[in-house]
Amino acid sequence: xxxxxxxxxxxxxxxxxxxxxxxxxxxxxxxxxxxxxxxxxxxxxxxxxxxxxxxxxxxxxxxxxxxxxxxxxxxxxxxxxxxxxxxxxxxxxxxxxxxxxxxxxxxxxxxxxxxxxxxxxxxxxxxxxxxxxxxxxxxxxxxxxxxxxxxxxxxxxxxxxxxxxxxxxxxxxxxxxxxxxxxxxxxxxxxxxxxx
Length: 196
What we know:
With about 200 residues, the chain is mostly beta strands. The protein has one helix at about 55-60; strands spanning about 25-35, 40-50, 60-70, 70-80, 90, 100, 115-120, 130-140, 165-170. The relative contact order is 0.26.
């Protein structure tokens, strides 16, 4: 896994008083993609969310990843809780880890048994604490051979304090086009490309 700068955990200042309409705050989300010339890829994600309300605690008490077995898979590496005292507690997520068929499109009469949801329970999470999850999704087979593309949404159902999205590209098949659509002023900044 790539080494990113230290995460910006949600601080004690991120309270319901600062975000009165929010149930959670995305303090930091580090997304790193490494793709190969054939279009296969691995995406690592390291996210920190602070729980502000009971509704937010219920929502953050489950981690769910969507993927399709036709093209790849997913894996959760760590789930932790940072208490209000700063102590980190590891969550035994493997005990509740399950993979099921994603039936969310059933209402549209579309069912693909290879569409999956991986989920686990974050037991012991309390209001005021931080949920830290580290996971990865892998694409073994590109939808179009020799082609890589991605779309990243810089928005969420909770306030975002920081999201960093980085891409490692192969020399044989570099990124040809990058577009930031409809950015709010000074909220999305693209750093210059640099060799590793």
